[in-house]
Amino acid sequence: MTSSNPPLHDLSVAALASALRERHVSALETAQHFLARAQQHQALGAYVALNEEATLAQARAADARIAAGTAGVLEGVPIAHKDIFVTRDFPTTAGSKMLVGYQSPFDATVVTQLAQAGAVTLGKLNCDEFAMGSANENSAVAPVGFDAPAPVRNPWNHDHVPGGSSGGSAVAVAARLAPAATGTDTGGSIRQPASFCGITGIKPTYGRASRYGMVAYASSLDQAGPMARSAEDCAILLSAMCGPDPDRDSTSLDMPAEDFSRSLNDSLDGLRIGIPKEFFGDGLASDVRAAVDAALREYEKLGAKLVPISLPRTELSIPVYYIIAPAEASSNLSRFDGVKFGHRANNFTDLEDMYKKTRAEGFGAEVKRRIMTGAYVLSHGYYDAYYLQAQKVRRMIANDFQNAFQDCDLIAGPVAPTVAWKIGEHGNDPLADYLADIFTLPASLAGLPGMSVPAGFGAGGMPVGLQLIGNYFAEARLLNAAHRLQQATDFHLRTPL
Amino acid sequence: MSAKLIHGYEVVIGFETHAQLATKSKIFSRASTAFGAEPNTQACAVDLALPGTLPVMNREAVACAIKLGLALGSHIAPVSIFARKNYFYPDLPKGYQISQFEIPVVQGGEVSFFLEGEKKTVRLVRAHLEEDAGKSLHEDFLGQSGIDLNRAGTPLLEIVTEPDMRSSEEAVAYAKELHKLVTWIGVCDGNMQEGSFRCDANVSVRKPGQPLGTRREIKNLNSFKNMQQAIDYEIRWQIEEIEDGRAIQQATVLFNPDTGETRAMRTKEDAADYRYFPDPDLPPLVIAPEWVERVRADMAELPRVMAARFVQDYGLPEYDATLLTQSKAMAAYFEAAAQASGQAKLASNWIMGEISRRLNAQDSGIESAAVSAAQLAALIGRIQDGTISNNAARQVFEALWSGEASDVDAVIEAKGLKQMNDSGALEKIVDEVIAANPGNVEQFKAGKDKAFNALIGQIMKASKGKANPQQATDLLRARLGG
Amino acid sequence: MALTPQDIGRIAHLARLELSPSESERMLTQLNGFFATVEQMRAVDTSGIEPLAHPVATIQDVQLRLRDDVASEPNQREANQKSAPAVERGLFLVPKVIE
């Protein structure tokens, strides 16, 4: 078998891994193939950093391990990382001018774990600045091949946004510039871009994957997860990414790594899928609704039962999230002060002035808005009314899910109210972006695992994603449900190019 | 508390003490806490707040908090919360300090001590765990400051009192007692020069019966001497201000040992708004009762308990017992000497007399005493069995201390300090003295007792002081038939 | 509870952000636009509800993990300071700190 028939970039992670293990193709050849594609499709703006030398060195090492018979499950499989994960071999910017040229002395735990499984790093992927955004329109970093920041383009229609904040990850996978990518999800940043770009992505239970080496946005919400073309691929990657990190992350759970592929093929007979009425209100675009309904009918054919449920505080999740996340962010981003690393203003009068100018120059508009919002809700006299109240309503939202799971095993609905909008369409109205997060925020606030599964196409042939939400630690069940749907449909196999 | 007034003003003092905990690694990272390393060589990625780093709590720091809580009779919170104190400063790498705010680990408790014979008790509000900041070096780097973050992340317990102190003497006595406690239980090395034990004093004055006056906080009093000076200066300054009709403004002030004055620091106008909130990187700290009991079980005997035991077991006066428990080393020295000699009170006298005098002179602790407890015990033994007189004992002690000799008996031999207990030799001397001093003998027989003493003097002289005075007296009386 | 221009100034200083007049104006409008949506959240009766910090605490106790007191971090000064704006003799340089 040669690398062009079928083309390597059409292979799933699972297929590629076995082709490599059986030495039908070398890791070096594979890496070169994807690096070439990354160059060839620079216009999409997916990659912000490549380091061919480092990538090929990793690939050669993978080939050596394959030859030595010590291959890991992902040996030689190329993946790319959202530029929110710090890496030794590539600069890390988190999409911010603040970190342009920043070189981390260590790798994120997730990066290390994937490397230990044999994965080869292709490069770093574009994202919204500090993962703050729903369209990847907030990146301040020039993509590979550009000398200034440029929009990341949805491969299904280059005039549309890819979603965010893991936009580059979604584009790279959808355009097959990488077999799979890592992403992070704070309020929907894996699920929504996966939905907008027609790929599969999962955010595990909060605490499953180590946050060490993820540039922090909102500590109590940030979670890493895989983005790939199929649920089967996500399961393989997630199994490698999860597990406790007792030495580095106090919020990582004491749960042993799991094989999330173990029940992929289980029957869905009798599976109770909860349908929250709040996810199907007037705000939901008809094209998205049609695709989601069709997917739900598929589930009924597969033996699942649809159960009407209610998540009464769905709407509240917007103010709750946009208070808690900015509050934590305002504190997490205080370390960017021009003293130890990153940008420092050139001209200033004194220390105070250096801080203010450095941060004014280094942060983009959305980041400043969230820092301001966060500092305000934590400031003297407002803490109880805003931050504390939000943390209480957050528990009520989490409890609503527990009530719902009395009556169902999984929850299904749309990922986003609409398909990907046009670049610049939301213009200067941050609130429009916030409101578009309404269906992903509840699971984020509750720390529940959630995923996006391709469910067809809507207006203008743009992809629509079905959101599946599981109870705590139910990732394997989620992936099983997604896999069975993907065996009955071929949306996840459709490609834009 | 009976408050002594200064110019009609009552002084009110509260303390905040930062005690660096004697752990090997930092509170939230695995970097070393050793003092004096090259700048930033002990500041790891976590300490520098490099992007992506997260805190992981040091168990030993929690154990120190439990020990302190037990030593102070405090409540040890079964659940306490770490919070972020947000402010910008170059020595604060994350832009926030991880501390405890609403729910600290150690709550309540008290410190008691004697001041001029009167027992004082200072109530504690709390002691909370937090991380130390780095250091700004002001030595000029072309008009800039250099930042060394080696100290950043060193575990601290901040110990906060109620405003219970009413004089600088009381404040210093409190600080000394607290210093004794933390070093005694081993949670802090107590080195004030290196900043291991830093005291901030909140000082205010008021007319008796009035509400609390506005306080000024004196920062980083790094010696007991400075503490006294700084507080006295601050009290005088505040009273003068008020007397001159100026209101005291709340401020943080620094003490300058050279001028002996305090001056207000450049005030951080937003200092009041730290935007505290629970640190989402750190779940609640849970301390099981079993852990507290384990710590209690292997904790060293506390000074007050040990002093009571000294009174009980060795029959020492409370005064002796209190002085001998000023430090663990002192107490250990005493017990060794007392047990080896079987003469607790004598051992106590020597330690509080000869030894303390010499140590104070060279201003060092018992650990640098040139005479070991064993040597002291041997010396006491020789006094007890009448081998040497007290005067001779002092000479022996001097010889041991100066290092000219190390064996008690050897010194006694070499210096010929042994008391003459061999009656034959003494009788000979007595007879000679009687023969040589007929006048005194006559006077004695005529009833003049002074003459008898003169003869004893002669005998002692002739024996070069080695005669056992009692023995000499008995013999002389027998000879003179008195 | 709408924000005032003074609030923007106060918060911008707390957050050490220099905002131009036009930025401050836009910021005020946008923040007030958002906080309008917060009113419904503030109206929720949360009496007797514990705030939720670590999400999984919804269903199980989550408590702080403690590590052994081992000093095992090597000196990585050079690598750690690679991206520092200004360093001299191993010290980070900043405009003079005045106490």
From TrEMBL, chain A:
GO terms for cellular component: glutamyl-tRNA(Gln) amidotransferase complex. Its EC number is 6.3.5.7. The keyword Nucleus does not apply. The active site is at 82 (charge relay system), 165 (charge relay system), 189 (acyl-ester intermediate). Residues 31-479 form the Amidase domain. Keywords: ATP-binding, Ligase, Nucleotide-binding, Protein biosynthesis, Transferase. InterPro entries: Amidase, Amidase_CS, Amidase_dom, AS_sf, GatA. GO terms for biological process: translation. GO terms for molecular function: ATP binding; glutaminyl-tRNA synthase (glutamine-hydrolyzing) activity; transferase activity. It comes from the Bacteria. Pfam families: Amidase. It catalyses: L-glutamyl-tRNA(Gln) + L-glutamine + ATP + H2O = L-glutaminyl-tRNA(Gln) + L-glutamate + ADP + phosphate + H(+). Allows the formation of correctly charged Gln-tRNA(Gln) through the transamidation of misacylated Glu-tRNA(Gln) in organisms which lack glutaminyl-tRNA synthetase. The reaction takes place in the presence of glutamine and ATP through an activated gamma-phospho-Glu-tRNA(Gln). Heterotrimer of A, B and C subunits. Belongs to the amidase family. GatA subfamily. HAMAP family: GatA (MF_00120). This is Glutamyl-tRNA(Gln) amidotransferase subunit A. It comes from Simplicispira metamorpha. The gene is gatA.
UniProtKB/TrEMBL annotation, chain B:
Coiled coil: none annotated. It is an enzyme of class 6 (ligase). Belongs to the GatB/GatE family. GatB subfamily. Allows the formation of correctly charged Asn-tRNA(Asn) or Gln-tRNA(Gln) through the transamidation of misacylated Asp-tRNA(Asn) or Glu-tRNA(Gln) in organisms which lack either or both of asparaginyl-tRNA or glutaminyl-tRNA synthetases. The reaction takes place in the presence of glutamine and ATP through an activated phospho-Asp-tRNA(Asn) or phospho-Glu-tRNA(Gln). Residues 332-480 form the Asn/Gln amidotransferase domain. The keyword DNA repair does not apply. This is Aspartyl/glutamyl-tRNA(Asn/Gln) amidotransferase subunit B. It catalyses: L-aspartyl-tRNA(Asn) + L-glutamine + ATP + H2O = L-asparaginyl-tRNA(Asn) + L-glutamate + ADP + phosphate + 2 H(+); L-glutamyl-tRNA(Gln) + L-glutamine + ATP + H2O = L-glutaminyl-tRNA(Gln) + L-glutamate + ADP + phosphate + H(+). Keywords: ATP-binding, Ligase, Nucleotide-binding, Protein biosynthesis, Transferase. PANTHER family: GLUTAMYL-TRNA GLN AMIDOTRANSFERASE SUBUNIT B MITOCHONDRIAL AND PROKARYOTIC PET112-RELATED, GLUTAMYL-TRNA(GLN) AMIDOTRANSFERASE SUBUNIT B, MITOCHONDRIAL. GO terms for biological process: glutaminyl-tRNAGln biosynthesis via transamidation; translation. Its EC number is 6.3.5.-. Pfam families: GatB_N (PF02934), GatB_Yqey (PF02637). NCBIfam families: gatB (TIGR00133), PRK05477.1-2 (NF004012), PRK05477.1-4 (NF004014). GO terms for molecular function: asparaginyl-tRNA synthase (glutamine-hydrolyzing) activity; ATP binding; glutaminyl-tRNA synthase (glutamine-hydrolyzing) activity; transferase activity. Gene3D superfamilies: 1.10.10.410, GatB domain, N-terminal subdomain. Heterotrimer of A, B and C subunits.
From TrEMBL, chain C:
GO terms for biological process: glutaminyl-tRNAGln biosynthesis via transamidation; regulation of translational fidelity; translation. InterPro entries: Asp/Glu-ADT_sf_sub_c, GatC. It comes from the Bacteria. The keyword Heme does not apply. Keywords: ATP-binding, Ligase, Nucleotide-binding, Protein biosynthesis, Transferase. The keyword GTP-binding does not apply. It catalyses: L-aspartyl-tRNA(Asn) + L-glutamine + ATP + H2O = L-asparaginyl-tRNA(Asn) + L-glutamate + ADP + phosphate + 2 H(+); L-glutamyl-tRNA(Gln) + L-glutamine + ATP + H2O = L-glutaminyl-tRNA(Gln) + L-glutamate + ADP + phosphate + H(+). It holds the Pfam family GatC. Its EC number is 6.3.5.-. It is an enzyme of class 6 (ligase). GO terms for molecular function: asparaginyl-tRNA synthase (glutamine-hydrolyzing) activity; ATP binding; glutaminyl-tRNA synthase (glutamine-hydrolyzing) activity; transferase activity. Allows the formation of correctly charged Asn-tRNA(Asn) or Gln-tRNA(Gln) through the transamidation of misacylated Asp-tRNA(Asn) or Glu-tRNA(Gln) in organisms which lack either or both of asparaginyl-tRNA or glutaminyl-tRNA synthetases. The reaction takes place in the presence of glutamine and ATP through an activated phospho-Asp-tRNA(Asn) or phospho-Glu-tRNA(Gln). Belongs to the GatC family. Heterotrimer of A, B and C subunits. This is Aspartyl/glutamyl-tRNA(Asn/Gln) amidotransferase subunit C. The lineage of its organism: Bacteria, Pseudomonadati, Pseudomonadota, Betaproteobacteria, Burkholderiales.
